[in-house]
Amino acid sequence: MALFVILTFLPIALLTFLGLSRVVAELGLVYVYYQVQPFDAALQIWGTPTISGQSVTTLSFMRIFNSAGKGYVMPAMTQSVKAVDRVVKPRQIALMIGVSLILGYVVSIANTLYLGYAYGAYNLGNMGLKNAAPGAFNKAINSIRNPIPMGGKGGLAIWALIGAAAMAAFTMARYWLPWWPLHPIGLAIQGNYGVTKVVFSILIVWAIKSLLMRIGGVDLYERGKPFFIGLIVAQALSTALVFAIDCVWFPARGHNVHNY
Q1: Residue 228 lies in a domain
Q2: N or C terminus of the chain with fewer C-beta within 10 Å?
Q3: What are residue 182's phi and psi, to 5 degrees?
């Protein structure tokens, strides 16, 4: 990949990860999707005539960093450390997450190779194996065959600058004007797929939080936290149980426990 493309992609990617982590941590979302993925932003800024075919292809492979908005690590680290605040030292939970990541990568790669060779990867019907991986090549081919002008089609780069200015204005209004009613994050994630799927759950959570605060104030709110953490733990354990049952009695024919 050309150096100027690297110097464009990496800052955008890191700022995106940081921004989405802020959204997840501040709003309490489980995840949030990208509106524009970092590799696509780099393509729109420079345009495909400016970037070599090698750089376009390599940028398409950078989807591995982005996943579908749920595969990056920073929000998980943020939420996990906050969830055990004043209970477990941050370094301890970071170590556990690191060990889990390494174990997960090893098991995932080994399992993918085994299933691919045993059954044929294309026959598994898996989104990642059947659709996402070829999608990287298709993205590169489409970008090269249908050149993107510098600044993006329809002046996307200009609109990005306008959005950045609007976000900065909303953020300053939030900090400087006590009466300002609108949260700036709403502008950044409006219409976001990850939000539209969980918006009703968010309303339920906000209602429960407001009720607890009205009845018992901050003290009741703090005492109620273990109950809700227990719900999350039960979800993880039940998913692991179903996974174990599928491995034994339904190999390669597992069940969809959750869809987020």
Answers
A1: yes
A2: C
A3: -100, 130
Q: How many separate domains does the chain show?
A: 1
- Contacts with 129 (C-beta within 8 Å, 6 or more apart), sequence order: 112, 116, 121, 122
Nearest to 62 by CA among 31, 26, 34: 34
Angle at 96 between CA 92 and CA 102, to 5 degrees: 145
Residue 137 inside a domain? The answer is no
Closest CA to 29 of 21, 19, 37: 21
**Is 232 a member of any domain?**
yes
Q: Which domain holds residue 197?
A: 191-260
Average pLDDT over residues 234-260: 81
Query: Is residue 23 included in any domain, yes or no?
Result: no
Query: Mean pLDDT highest for which of 127-131, 146-150, 198-202?
Result: 146-150
Tens digit of pLDDT for each residue in 98-133?
A: 898 899 889 989 988 888 888 887 777 666 677 777
